[in-house]
Amino acid sequence: MFMMKRLTVWLIETAAEAVLLSLFMFAWWGYSDPVERGFMFQLFIWAWGIFAIFMLGSGYLITTAILRIAWKNKRLWTYSAASTVLVLAHLQIFFLVASGWTTYERLPIQVASACIVFACTFVGGWILQKESSLNIAEKL
Question: CA-to-CA distance for 90 and 38, rounded, in angstroms?
Fold first, then answer.
């Protein structure tokens, strides 16, 4: 049962990361809607692109799913730190495959991604830790 909770938290973390990275892209490059479909539509398109192209394409989803399910350390920040290292490694893979990115374009994406992933996984870990302590208290 706890494994299913970990998987659910991971799914929510991943969705939050894609949406927050999309919002960062709007803030960094500016929002433009030439077809006038609306902000939410554009946000969905960006989030879907990040999810499909980066997260699926680089293998980030698989490695973070395995990490979230297998992680046993009780310290809250360690999983977040490991996930941050993973996102930076997968971004390097993505930038190598999608050549043509300058350092000026890469650095803000790397910093924003690291901060967003750390924050999302920290909150997810905190929720799991809180849930785990509640379950233990109920059994006593």
Answer: 31
